[in-house]
Amino acid sequence: MEAQTKGYVMKRVSRIMGYSILIITSLILISPIFFMVVSSVKIDAEYLSYPIRVFPEIPHWDRYNLVFTMTPFVKIAVRTGLLAISTATITTIISSMVGYAFARYHVPGSKQLFWLVIAMMIVPFIVILIPQFMLYSKLKLTNTYWPWFLEALGGTPFYIFLFRQFFLGFPKELEDAAEVDGCGPFRIYWQIFLPNAKPVIATVMIFAFIAVWSDYLKPLIYLNAKKTLLGVALASAFKNPQGFDLKTVSLAAGVIYVLPLILIFFIFQKNILKGVVTSGLKG
Q: By three-state DSSP, how is residue 229 classified?
């Protein structure tokens, strides 16, 4: 009896410690967003005051109005969103096709080619950024959106990996039955495999959308001010007549900028987790 009581107490203590660590970690991770939201309704004098005041004396909601009056926010946001959705759709389709081929068709050299694709995941983006820019510049594709579409047409190694691992779990009998019914390879992929890969499709679409929406470096390098995307447009748009940054207006713009990403995660978090988990590590 005493041993059972001791075990119960240890279990409770362990659970309390685990939850405490999770709560503390969550608060640390959330604190920058909380600080950004609270500071976005301050005036610059309050934001720069010392000692630091967490909450403003009076919330100044006009900071958010200035975001829309000082920049063509809606126009740039629509442009960025359309580019993100279109490239996410393309890269999802291409990556699913390549992942399907790696999962279901075993030809000489396919395994080595797959590992070569996986090896591309460890190459830092910054390493290939300058060579890519030089290539697009010689092709006269800078200041256009073609670099995003061309990269989408090549798929993405991580997304290919997710689809390949998911498609490996499909029973061979399902494919054999479709072939008996006269289905060709593309029809099997399009009508049988792809409709059953909704968790992975949702995961890849969300990741690909976020990659474009939150990108700062590529638009800064490839596009001019008239065609740039939202991240670059908001980075240095808010200044007073003397040329000094309006810091709290920039923070308000940051809140609006990240809000769609937060909403997407909370709405589709089950799809994201299910897509990653069901992909597994098989193969």
A: coil
The β-bridge partners of 245 are 239
* 164, 114 contact by CB (below 8 A): yes
DSSP 53: -
Residue that has been written with the tokens 């830092």 in this structure: 124
If one counts every other C-beta atom within 10 angstroms of the C-beta of residue 59, the result is 12
Cα 98 to Cα 109, 115, 154, 223: the distances in Å are: 15, 13, 10, 30
Among 220, 215, 196, CA closest to 275: 196
Cα four-point dihedral sign 133, 136, 142, 145:
negative
Sorted by sequence, the CB contacts under 8 Å of residue 132 that are 6+ apart come out as: 147
* Contact of 46 with 53, CB cutoff 8 Å: yes
**Nearest C-alpha neighbor of 257 from the set 67, 55, 59:** 67
How many CB atoms are closer than 10 A to CB 210?
16
CA proximity to 219, closest of 236, 203, 207: 236
| Backbone φ, ψ for residue 245 (5° rounding) | -65, 140
pTM (predicted TM-score) = 0.83
For 191-216, the pLDDT digits (tens) are 888 888 888 898 899 889 999 998 88
Question: Residue 239 in 3-state DSSP?
Answer: strand
